[in-house]
Specification:
The complex is a heterodimer of chains A (241) and B (595). Helices cover 22% and strands 15% of the residues of chain A. Chain A is α+β, with helices and mostly antiparallel strands. Chain A has 2 domains: 71 residues, Ubiquitin-like (UB roll) (Roll), CATH 3.10.20.740; 155 residues, Alpha-Beta Plaits, CATH 3.30.70. In chain A, a hairpin with a 5-residue loop joins strand 6 and strand 7. The relative contact order of chain A is 0.15. With 595 residues, chain B is an alpha/beta fold. A 6-stranded mixed beta sheet of chain B has the order 5-11-10-14-12-13. In chain B, strands 2-1-3-4 form a 4-stranded mixed beta sheet, with helices on one face. The longest helix of chain B is centred in the N-terminal third of the chain and has 21 residues. Chain B is globular. The chains are: A alpha+beta (241), B alpha/beta (595). The interface between A and B is large, with 39 and 44 residues. The complex binds flavin mononucleotide, iron/sulfur cluster (SF4) (2 copies) and FE2/S2 (inorganic) cluster. The site of one iron/sulfur cluster has 14 residues of chain B, from helix 18 and helix 20.
């Protein structure tokens, strides 16, 4: 059987039928930035970090299927500038104060900020004041200030844990993370720290308690390697399980 | 709570505990109970055996559903730019003064709340409002006072004077669709004579293209659904008409609904579908009862149901599904999500809807007008239909004309009519611009008035808003920027965050604190939203701002500060609380303006 090929940034890359661009690129060791995508979850297509150009048109690499002969641009200055803007938009939408966040150094959003040379948030901050912190649960903390609406937790809880603990409620800029319990508090839901949803958040919005500084700052995942080198540390760790 | 349960049980029973009816259930719960309380949400979630988060996600997604008490009378002023041009801002303030409430707040006695809502599809009726989803047009100070008195008297809406709710068609130009009287059943009979394949061939020959905006060939969709595997196939009539400045579907649903409904049946016949929905926008709630009556009449007279007009196997029925205040639900896949009782967020494509749509089955979503045209094609044949209009844009098109002109209303033209001709016909005096296609459309300036309304030139679902010499086009673009920020569904980053950034930048410029820096940001942002957004809403959300900068630069420039950059915070204004606290107002307590 002849090998199926498509092109990434002008170089031929093999793929298997049914693979998305992101999957095929990853298998070939090519980094495609992503936030809402996670290999254990059904593709979502919302964050748009994985935007690539396919035969001249922008597409989401995490949902778009590869076809033989496709010309895909991934690492171009123009796309990288767009990705920087996307990361900036995610930063200004919430309240991301990295120095006080337990996720710093292991945060995918922060790592992508470094990757795309984001020197400032650029746009005026929204400073949302209505994003609740939920510390009710004995083992897990929710800080909505840092939520980027990627719905990884929503999908993980529903599709892996079979629980439906999380949802996104509210339209557009009013979207927030909602919790499935009569009080809306995590403690009153059937969530457990052993759920995969407890460990899948790309940012510091869902944090396991009593873990502070378990890994010293400076030795965390993306302190050691840029996110593009590691392809994705959290996923590799996840897949190794 | 007994009263809560007694209100909800019949509603839940009516929908047989079907979770895909969630949106309809919540709408009706609100009609019965005025709002959707946490107790209602919990009860509905447990009755439907769905997570509470799912109920909350629906309540919070749709602007006309309320998860806090907004009073017995929920007044929403239409806030399209055409409403503003008709004086809606002063009328809004007048209404607020009657009750002493802030926008969106409920009066202390729980009687009333007053807020804004995007275009209600009454742009030919001056300023307009909705009271508990029922439309009232032609607002003036007198009407405001009358309505306020009715509310204060707690008179039930059903007992308000009927003339308040009068809405006219305002058809000022007819060709075939609105001009030729339609005999009920005639299109169906003609389709049956042609047979399923024959009917499809005529639609193909007619080269009919979708009237909802994108201009997609209708026959291709029908063919796709026909050939796709599926035990059940669906026809959806897209009556969401949310694009600001559009109201021609309102008129079709009012006075040409027989064509629309039989057009649905004809599409179903050609595609092999047996079930249809009308997705009716919440703002057109007042049309629901009339449409429902007509559907029942059609069933009674064998124009809907089993073996329509005696043709064996021609089975088709229609159900009305109400929206609840979300422009995005006009987008086909978002509409399907909404039909399934979920928040209206566009799906990932492919697969296309004609392969996997409603409940995973082949589904055709077509605009009201597109479907109505099918009756013409059935009766006269595709070749005859295609003789009207241009080669690439066959047939006629309804335009919703509003703004600065003598005769706002619906105009039917053959495709290919020039913009100048429309302006002449409706009595527009010295217009400086026309926004064709609504907020997501294109701004046309006088040097382009010879351009044609056609898919190959100026493509539009029909909105045609005219701006006279005294209008400020910057404010038009700013109104649209607010619209998109309000309507973004939130699914994708560029639109969810970008539309709010765009709105904030436009507001900063409006306040006189913007510079070229903000303009550069806007241009980058609008380009970036167009290229990275998930659906047409985000892709077009920057059009108006971009067009205004490119075509009405002085409207922007006169607001810009001369220096390169103005800080986000007005430093001197920020010191005001300190000045007040320290009782100082001397020169040293001020920061001089830059420049
Ligand atoms: C944000 C958005 C809103 C839309 N709103 C409507 C609408 O209100 N009515 C409509 O017919 N089409 C609307 N459309 C277009 C539909 O997605 C779809 O193309 C159309 O209903 C197909 O019908 P047609 O082929 O008859 O035009 C909208 C599209 C987008 C992206
Ligand atoms: S909490 Fe984390 S995983 Fe969940 S949506 Fe927010 S950012 Fe994504
Ligand atoms: S472009 Fe806007 S409306 Fe469309 S999916 Fe993205 S957020 Fe939703
Ligand atoms: S990773 Fe593809 S859209 Fe988020």
């Amino acid at each position: 059987m002849t090998e199926l090929l498509f092109n990434i940034d002008d170089l031929p890359v093999p793929f298997k039928p049914g693979q998305t661009i992101l999957e095929a690129a990853k298998a070939a060791g090519v980094f495609v930035p992503h936030l809402c995508h996670h290999p254990r979850l059904k593709p979502h297509g919302g964050c748009k970090l994985c935007t690539v150009v396919v035969n001249g048109r922008t597409q989401s690499a995490c949902t778009y299927k590869v076809a033989a002969g496709q010309e895909v641009d991934i690492d171009t200055p123009e796309l990288n500038a767009m990705r920087r803007s996307l990361v900036q938009l995610l930063f200004i939408e919430g309240n991301h104060f990295c120095p006080t966040c337990e996720k710093t150094g292991a945060c995918e959003l922060q790592a992508l900020g470094y990757e795309y040379e984001m020197l400032s948030p650029h746009f005026a901050e929204f400073y949302p004041a209505d994003r609740e912190v939920d510390a009710s649960h004995p083992d897990v903390l929710i800080d909505r200030n840092r939520c980027i609406m990627c719905e990884r937790c929503v999908r993980a809880s529903r599709d892996i844990d079979g629980k439906n603990v999380f949802g996104i409620a509210g339209r557009g800029g009013k979207a927030t993370l909602a919790i499935n319990s009569p009080t809306g508090k995590l403690a009153d839901s059937d969530f457990a720290v052993t759920d995969s949803a407890a460990h899948i958040c790309p940012v510091g919005a869902i944090l396991v308690k009593r873990n502070g500084f378990a890994t010293p700052i400076g030795e965390r995942a993306y302190d050691a390697h840029p996110i593009s080198d590691s392809v994705n540390v959290c996923e590799i760790a996840e897949e190794a399980k | 709570m007994a009263s809560l349960e007694s209100a909800l049980i019949p509603i839940l029973a009516k929908y047989r505990g079907d979770p895909t009816a969630l949106l309809q259930i919540l709408r009706e719960a609100q009609e019965a109970l005025d709002w959707i309380s946490p107790e209602t949400e919990i009860l509905v979630a447990s009755a439907l055996q769905i997570p509470l988060t799912q109920v909350k996600s629906v309540t919070q997604f749709y602007a006309h559903l309320y998860d806090h008490n907004r009073g017995k009378y929920r007044i929403l002023f239409s806030d399209n730019i055409t409403d503003r041009m008709a004086g809606s801002v002063a009328l809004f303030e007048r209404m607020q003064a009657h009750f002493g409430v802030e926008p969106g707040q409920t009066s202390a006695d729980g009687l009333v709340s007053i807020d804004l809502t995007p275009c209600t599809g009454l742009c030919d009726h001056g300023a307009a409002m909705l009271v508990n989803s029922i439309a009232i047009g032609r607002l003036d100070a007198e009407r405001i006072d009358e309505i306020a008195a009715l509310v204060k008297a707690r008179k039930p809406l059903a007992k308000w004077p009927a003339e308040l709710f009068a809405i006219d068609d305002n058809i000022h130009r007819e060709v075939t669709l609105t001009g030729i009287p339609y005999v009920p059943g005639s299109g169906l009979d003609a389709a049956i004579r042609l047979g399923r394949a024959g009917m499809f061939d005529e639609i193909k020959r007619a080269a009919l293209r979708g009237r909802g905006g994108a201009g997609f060939p209708t026959a291709t969709k029908i063919e796709g659904a026909r050939n796709a595997p599926g035990v059940q196939k669906y026809i959806v009539c897209n009556a969401d008409e949310g694009e600001p400045g559009t109201f021609k579907d309102r008129v079709l649903l009012t006075s040409f609904s027989t064509r629309v409904l039989e057009g649905m049946a004809i599409a179903a016949y050609a595609a092999g579908a047996a079930k249809g929905f009308i997705y009716l926008r919440s703002e057109y709630q007042y049309l629901r009862a009339k449409l429902q009556r007509e559907i029942e009449e059609m069933r009674a007279s064998g124009r809907l149901g089993v073996s329509i007009r005696g043709a064996p196997g021609f089975d088709f029925d229609v159900e009305i599904h109400m929206g609840a205040g979300a422009y995005i639900c006009g987008e086909g896949t978002a509409q399907i999500e909404s039909l399934e009782g979920k928040p209206g967020r566009p799906r990932v494509k492919p697969p296309s809807m004609v392969i996997r749509g409603y409940k995973g089955m082949p589904t055709i979503v077509d605009n009201v007008e597109t479907l109505a045209h099918l009756t013409e094609i059935a009766l006269e044949g595709g070749a005859s239909f295609a003789r009207r209009g241009t080669r690439a844009s066959t047939g006629t098109k309804l335009l919703s004309v509003s703004g600065d002109c003598e005769r706002p209303g619906v105009y039917e033209y053959e495709f290919g009519v020039t913009i100048g001709r429309v302006l002449h016909d409706c009595g527009a005096v010295a217009p400086i611009a026309v926004q064709v296609g609504g907020a997501s459309g294109v701004l046309i300036t006088p040097d382009e008035f010879s351009r044609k309304i056609a898919f190959e030139d100026v493509s539009t679902a029909g909105a045609f808003m005219i701006f006279g010499p005294d209008r400020d086009i910057f404010e038009v673009a700013r109104n649209f920027a607010h619209f998109f920020a309000h309507e973004s569904c939130g699914f994708c980053t560029p639109c969810r965050v970008g539309t709010t950034v765009q709105k904030n930048l436009m507001d900063k410029i409006a306040e006189g604190r913007g510079s070229r820096y903000e303009v550069n940001d806007l241009m980058r942002l609008t380009d970036f939203m167009r290229r990275t957004s998930h659906c047409g809403l985000g892709e077009s959300a920057g059009n108006a701002v971009r067009d205004t900068w490119l075509k009405f630069r002085p409207a922007f420039e006169r607001r810009l500060v001369p220096h390169d950059f103005a800080p986000q915070v007005d430093l001197d204004a920020a010191l005001e609380p300190t000045r007040l606290a320290t009782h100082r107002d001397d020169a040293a307590a001020h920061i001089p303006a830059e420049g």
